[in-house]
Design brief:
By secondary structure, the chain is an alpha/beta fold. The chain is 39% helix and 22% strand. A hairpin with a 2-residue loop joins strand 5 and strand 6. The longest helix is centred in the C-terminal third of the chain and has 24 residues.
Amino acid sequence: MSWRLYADLGNATLHWGVFPDTDSHDAECLAHDRISALPEEFGQSCPFSLNAMLDEAGETLADYAGGLLCSSNPALTPDFVRALERSTGIRLPELTSAMTAHIRTSYHDRTQLGLDRFANAAAVLAHYGRPAVVADLGTCITVDLINAKGVLVGGAIAPGLPIMFVGIAAQTPHLVPSLDRMEPPANLTKPGRSTEECLALGIYSTLLGATLSLCAQLSFELPSASIILTGGDAICVQSMSNFGDVFDEILTLKGLQALDLRH
């Protein structure tokens, strides 16, 4: 059976997945994986990850039928595209602004909106009800409001876990060993009793607090809006709070599928 590949290249990770080659939005993802976005490792990590997904999906490289790449890291995109083509023979087409032109937005300048945010909106329009608030928790916490008319109104961007780590390490380097040993807190209501526990409580409480606050602010005038969590750190927020109506770790990939089917 032929298959399609959808890839979301971010600042720190590559999240991609294998989908059936079909005309249906309801086709389920056959396999997906998340790897570090390190250009010096793409030559090995890309074929290893892709082959593992194909094994899980029961597919072969020869049956590749197309796909889409969405990148929020333009500097890294050429390295990824070259490494993928050299190691697998696949040249993955890139999502363009023209392919998202049908998605309405209230942004002052739609060219400032990342294509991954349009992809998330496309997934909401294809799979979920509206209005909706999407919280994408990656390098940044990016929260967007899609209103009842399907318009991507706008949103908010705040530092995510990776930026918090980098900022603390840069400004207080003596805390780096504690950051390296830190684990997510088991209980957000108990004071930390070591530097590691204090950092964990502060950092993860900030992640949770920012996500909850921004979602509440953006849905204030649309209380019926569904809260949809996605991104690499969304599972942390959900596990700490059971917050959100939907947890969809492949939301962006579903959006790429929807945009691909449209074109």
